[in-house]
Write a structure and sequence with these properties.
heterodimer, A: Aldehyde Oxidoreductase, domain 3, 3-stranded antiparallel beta sheet, B: alpha+beta, Ubiquitin-like (UB roll), 5-stranded mixed beta sheet
């Protein structure tokens, strides 16, 4: 999967490439995270975020994939690859995209715990019981 | 009066008991007016915060944004993508 992302953005003119993977952590006895999305709006936001990165770093190329559904601990839920002629733009474009995804993407995480409970994640730190697991 | 589609996601869908519906609001109306009507129609949504995040036709907006008949309002729990 990483190979494919790099193939999407690399070229002989782009000498620096960055890959970011966001993987599910095992904090709080988490066994996995279920991601759900407002699909139509999410697709629009992905396009807008990548277009903005293109405007800011015109010589960079960036690609983004976000998985939905149940992602087990250790696996990636999001992958971003950015390539540019030099490393500064590659790092900057990659960072920009992950930060914007976290601010704007209509995607939600429900943590699944080993004891069978589930909690919706609120990045401001609050956790809210998420009702029954559906599996 | 105008009919506006409403979408619920994640925890808010659990509270509302559904993922989509429609409400009638006297127009002109704001997103806040639509949310007020949603709280009347879906009692579980009274647990939503006073000023939830909202999208109008798939773009995030402030609650004073104007809605028209046929628009889609989505109530968004705190975003946690990435």
């Amino acid at each position: 999967m990483i190979e494919q992302l790099l193939t999407d953005v690399q070229s002989p003119e782009r000498g620096g490439a960055c890959v970011f993977l966001g993987t599910v952590r095992s904090d709080d006895d988490v066994t996995g995270i279920e991601y759900s999305a407002y699909d139509d709006m999410a697709l629009g936001e992905i396009t807008r975020i990548l277009d903005e990165a293109q405007v800011r770093w015109p010589d960079a190329r960036v690609t983004l994939r976000h998985r939905l559904g149940l992602i087990p601990v250790g696996e990636a839920s999001i992958a971003i690859a950015a390539a540019a002629p030099h490393r500064d733009e590659a790092f900057a474009a990659c960072r920009y995209v992950i930060e914007e995804v976290k601010k704007r993407m209509p995607i939600w995480k429900k943590e699944m715990h080993a004891d069978g409970t589930a909690t919706w994640v609120d990045p401001s730190g609050k956790q809210i019981a998420g009702g029954l697991r559906d599996r | 009066m105008g009919k506006v589609s409403v979408r619920f996601f994640a925890r808010y869908a659990e509270l509302a008991g559904c993922t989509s519906s429609a409400v009638n609001v006297p127009t002109p109306a704001t997103v806040a007016d639509v949310i007020a009507r949603v709280r009347e129609v879906f009692p579980g949504t009274r647990a939503l915060p006073p000023r939830p995040l909202a999208a109008l036709n798939q773009r995030q907006v402030k609650l004073d944004a104007q809605v028209r008949e046929g628009d889609e309002v989505a109530l968004l729990p705190p975003l946690s993508g990435g």
